[in-house]
Amino acid sequence: MDWLDLLLYLFIAASSIKLLFYILFLKHFAWTKTLNPKQKNIGVSVIICAKNEARNINAFLPYIIRQDYPEFEIVLVNDNSHDNTLDVMENFALKHNNIKLVNVKNIEAFWANKKFALTLGIKAAKYDYLLFTDADCKPLSKHWIKNMSSHFSNEKTIVLGYGAYQKQRSFLNKLIRFETLLTALHYFSFAKLGMPYMGVGRNLAYRKDEFFKANGFLNHMHIRSGDDDLFINQVATKKNTAVCLTKDSFTLSIPNNTLKDWIKQKRRHYTTSGFYKQSHKFILSSLYLSNMLFWVLITVLLILKMHLKWLAVIFLLKCILQGFLIKKVSKKLNESDLFFLFPVLEICLLSLQLYIFINNLISKPKHWK
Length: 369
Description:
Mean pLDDT: 91
Largest sheet: 7 strands, mixed
Shape: elongated
Number of helices: 12
Number of strands: 10
């Protein structure tokens, strides 16, 4: 066996892993029906932690206040803001008796730690069922609370939702939304497979006793990020986790406007994956490495003009299967405009992920705000 044959075998192996993941994602997510259980009418505490978010609180809090749900409160956590976030929160609280304020001031042990602020918000919550979103998010419908809370049961104590980003006319916006779509595809699919490994704080719900049974964020309080994914990675199981995919349950957030800001955000997010359970790290690494090897090896083999028939067959199979998957998922998550650009977006995203990985090895990203 010469080295050219070895490259081909490596290419076939990487391609096989990619195709296997596509089949799993199709079977356990893309083709599954979206369930909409009956409304539970349980008391829900919506928790929003904000740091210097006065403008966003003004713009988006009314969408939560207007939710069509019989029994809910809104817990607003001001995390030591130095703008007028607290004033804005107080003005809303004066007008609505279901708004509760938690004003957090920094202490040396938890300086600029969102998890400390969130912990105080959770402790202040009146109800046992907690629904989380961010200050720059708005629900896409007035039935957001109803849809997310309907998935709770005696067994299901965690509900994973989808947090989309606003559509804008730029390539960067499409790249951000494509990365968000792929991330959702992965964590929803593995949750459906019985291996939940993360959720996003833009749209996430769990029962309060799950938080206290796990001693809150204590196991990873020293890590600045990860109040959503690290906590879910710690406590989520096949039995206690549900997925909510009705479009009325989606939230919409403001995306970054510059590549620099988005990379800074993703550097912080990707840092937490190193603290996932070993089995989750292995699966996610396999997913990324198979994708990276696919593109590197096909490029090398094309340059060398070797095994062109094999390359054509495998590449065509990959495009058909991946295209079908992306089309189904983008329709399900209301991101259909991304379908025709997905090959270009995939290559750009892969390159940026490699850049972020290298940068995180060199230096650690800073705290959340």
